[in-house]
Predict the 3D structure of the following.
Amino acid sequence: MTSSLETIRERLRRFADYEATGASPLYEHLAAQAAADDDVASLLAAASGNDAQPTLLLAAAHRLLQAEPIHPLSRYYPSLGGLDGPDTQTWPLFREFVLDRAESMRELVTTRFTQTNEVNRAAVLFPAVASVAKRVRGPIGLLEVGCSAGLLLGMDTFAYRYQCDGGEQVSAGPAKAAVGLHCALSVSEGAKFPTLPKKMAVKARVGLDRSPVDASDEDELAWLEACVWADQPDRVRLLRTAAAAQSRWRPELVTGDAVDDLATAAARVPEELPLVVYTSHTLPYLSEPRREDFVAALRELAGHRPLWWVAMENYEAGLNHVLPGRDELAYATTGRSTLSVVSFDGRRMSAEFEATAVPHGQRMTWSAR
């Protein structure tokens, strides 16, 4: 089912006002202009339902511009070597570029999905996953739902540096790592940031995605790069570094639905391993009924094996089912993701609120005691 033009315009406005503002001047400008331009906004209408997100429109344009790097529009794209910030010519050039390639744009938004395999999200997920590993006192198996290329499945191989408000630095992960992640860290009053390990024993790495990406394929990797916001070239470089490092710990990627094929993917993790399922900005792409189905599928799995769910998600996009009554955490209000650890006693759930973080993991506020 396609989204109405009004829904798309509202998503573009919200993206400009809440997600891109202060983080991406280029995408804030383009999304705000697209929200007021029916011809451009309608290009996204070809995508279905919750897939019709501003990031998909912008990624499709980015991918086409990758193929034409000498186009004048590229001077506003630092990912392609551009040095100019948004000005009066940016929108006219963008509008002309995408409308002249309307057929190609529609093909991309109908055949591709937003796959922001943002490696730095591991800096937010790692403390929560490590806390589960500490509880079980042994090796764990990882299952990432909505894994894209599965780059986050190597989180135990990454080095982490958390820069605290007072100037102190907290390090974690192996000292010598190909991928190094940084995260600004605030700790709420009364909270305590956990002691993080240098090593975490991961014995299985499985990813589930409706369209897994082979990061060793240059064309597929180019799409992942196109999904990165074009005026954040450091994220592109990090993506490339993680993709190159993945050859050392190649995960098993399963093609399938987040709900219907969850048990099949989980079965790829040996039953003797405690299973840590994690998601990061996956639930917004599911309809509300399917989010409920996803939680129900986790409960069903937990009835058969030890299982935890580590979620870095918009609060209202599913966490409200397991952590009710915390509307102050709503992404629509805070612009931040909520990090929670959901444990299961049989099919009974218990959720612990850990932290809030910016969507791409560069800053986090730890709240757990």
Observations:
- The chain has two domains: 5-111, 119-366.
- The longest strand covers residues 348-357.
- DSSP finds twelve helices and eleven strands in the chain.
- The mean pLDDT is 94.
